[in-house]
Amino acid sequence: MVENKLSAEAVHKTIKAAFESFECKDNNTVDVRDISTIIYSLGCFPTQADIHNFIAEVEEDQTGFVHIDKFLPTMTTVLLENKYPPIPEDRVLQAFEVLDREKKGYLESEELTKYLTQEGEVFSPSEMDEMLLAFADPEKNHIYYQDFIHQLTIDPDK
Amino acid sequence: MGCGVTKSDQFHKHTGKAIRAAVLIQRWYRQYVARTEMRRRYTWHIFQSIEYSGEQAQIKLYNFLGYLMDNFTPASTERNLISHIFRENEVCLDAEWERYFCYKNIEVPEIYSGPHLTFPLTVDQAVGLVEAFRNKKQLHSRYVLQLLLETWKRFRLLPNINRIATCQSKEVCICGDLHGQLEDLLLIFYKNGMPSSENPYLFNGDFVDRGKDSIEILIILFAFLLVYPGDVFLNRGNHEDHIVNLRYGFTKEVLTKYKMYGKRILKLLQKIFSWLPLATVIDQKVVVLHGGISDSTDLNLLARVDRHNYVSALRPPKRKTTSNSIRSVDSDLEEDFWASNRLIQRRSSLTYPKTFGSRDSFHNRSLQDFSDRIKVDPADELEMCRRKTTPFSPGVNRSKKESTPPGSTDSVSSDPTKDEWRQILDLLWSDPMTTDGCVPNEVRGGGCYWGPDVTEEFLNRHNLQLLIRSHECKQEGYEFCHNRKVLTLFSASNYYDVGSNRGAYVKLGPDLVPYVVQYQASSMTRELTVRQSVGRTERSALKVLREQLFSHKSDLVCAFKQYDTENTGLVSVNDWASAVESVMFLGLPWRMLRSQLVTCKLNDGMIDYNEWFNELAIKGPNTDHIDQSLLETLYRHRATLETIFRIVDTDNSGFITIEDFRQTWKLLSVYLKMEITDEAISDLAVTIDSNHDGSIDIDEFMEAFRLTDKKSRLERGRSMFMGTATDLTKLEGDPNI
Q1: Over the stretch B479-502, which tens digit does the pLDDT of each residue have?
Q2: Which of B27, B49, B475 has the most A C-beta neighbours within 10 Å, making it the best mutation to test the interface with A?
Q3: Best residue in A37, A94, A96, A149 to probe B by mutation, most B CBs within 10 Å?
Q4: ipTM of this model?
Q5: Does the beta-carbon distance from A157 to B592 stay under 8 Å?
Q6: Is B268 left (phi over 0), alpha (psi -120 to 50) or beta?
Q7: Structural domain boundaries of chain A?
Q8: pTM for this structure?
């Protein structure tokens, strides 16, 4: 996570480091499809709409690439203004509780799939499969969401 | 649609809230996935950086040894230590070969439970070999030698460039690097069937090194090639090279598995590797080769070379010369040269300027680093001066058409054999890049980086439409680049570590549209979730990285002190990152990695670097009295050290004498340009030779200094690469491991 009150220089360095991980060998551009990953990995939680707007601002005229020169200033603003703030754990917990009508403490894979692939900013089938494969109890087909949240918020970057 | 009226009622009642909840979860989860992806990327980057810098180190070492060979008199000790690896095959005539590699007097004992082979081989026998190896059997050396002889005879008939035609419905299956990972080959056969006349295969090099079953893979591939000569094709990779094999595990694997005849097997393989075809063209439209191309790659030229002259792609070709010739000869070191007691000088190596010049100078660049350090006999020095006619001029044109520039009789590029050599080197070692152009591949130390414009021009010139190559590990097992005109194919899954990557193969039919199939060998472990596999790989990568950092302690401390002008022992995170990169040159995102590499707490945002080194310190038994910087050197150059040991161990016994050990150290200290006193070396030697019998067990030595993990003795190839030492921060009690 990026600490607040960093100098612009430090922010630039962080952004560049993230950018470089996706760079195609030294030409200072990344594939536009990696932009959302880069933004997320910098500790931001944009919505899909946010991402689309961001890309519209930085993409090089439909080449499918984004150059560091455009990415850096836009991203710096995002970080310094905390535009896509993180979602605290308890809000995620509440979200799961909303979906868990019966307060079972878990959601069935089927239910969760229905919500996440049909509502909101829908998951693709492969995104859904991956989540279930990684986190659902394979025998009961449940996701115990409290555990789930806990596992995912052990932040290795801290 | 819904399963119950009740459920869907409830759903609709709270739709607004539910949607918001779903959005939150989706957003939050995606962020997690992205962070994981980032970690996977830099983990990958760590392994790859270290892998390539290891390759570079090997080339440098090799060049250094070659330089020594050229510049020491025949009688010197140092030369004797290493001369045998430079000896070309002494036997040349077929009759002599058959005699030398005769398997006929090797008896197969009754108790041998592995497969028996009779020649000519049949399909059943080839399939039988696969089964036997799946069941962990080993093929007897008699049969190995027999198989290799037959293989060699067949290879000699093959052209430099294989030509395949996919007629009617035959699809050819193309596989990339296997690197001794038998499991992956078995998986490919399982998914795609064994080779046959209806099921042709092409294997694109790097069958050996790193994995633990390289010889078994070779046996299988050769067996099927013999049984289906028109349907199984092999290309040479950069690891089909005995020099590379010394470092990356194949040599050791063979010598371990075949204690009696290992050396003979390796010698025969040396020859066979040099006879492997260099490339394959399918339907005259698709070219398949191991590494890549350069802006001067010419398939017509390559089709004409005597490929078997290039036993190792790392050596310029051998050429003979008369004693009066001004043009000095290359380092071909047959016995008779030494008998006449002449000094042979590698061309131009002493006179190369230090600047990073054109590609010509690149390959020899590391040599001139040592010229001021090698102790040379004064008489020889005089001889060398006399032989030096004109200084070599840098920046020589790469083009092979260039005529000799005036005043330079030693011009490199006007020599056709040297040009051929470079073409082969490029073919086996190059990597693609995204920008246009063609530049030396300094990361690996051989070949070049080539851009999309070079691909375009090359394909057009040869009337081709696609280039398939391997050589680079890819997370998905394959990757297209250069507008989908280049396809990288890698068939060793879990290459860096369990879960690191998939393997892939390609099916190519008459439509010449590549159809990719991915897989991942999973018997190494149960199926890991995304998160688990990233975590695991990441931990390995970080361990390797910490070892690298520790072994550069002195340089790092120097670098830190430059930022820490007031000697507080502290540096800021930014300065820490800059300093580390300036020493390590791995191009890694150090700031991102910092929290994983520096676990001691930050002192007000500053890092206490002395405390950090304590954290990283490697401890071993009885090493307290050994000079710390010596230990550090040992650690940093352990792969090189082990390679030199293996070279020095001429009878492949696994033991070297104390005297040889001392000589090894001397070699290493010259190579590293370090002063290591005789006393320090003696201390070290005595510590290691714990039973005082005058000889040192190489494996024990490497383990004693935590240079390798004991349990990975059998997986030497991998451990040499990974440098898997046990937990660096723990001190193990037992000195007699």
Answers
A1: 999 999 999 999 999 888 767 788
A2: B27
A3: A37
A4: 0.88
A5: yes
A6: alpha
A7: 2-80, 89-152
A8: 0.70
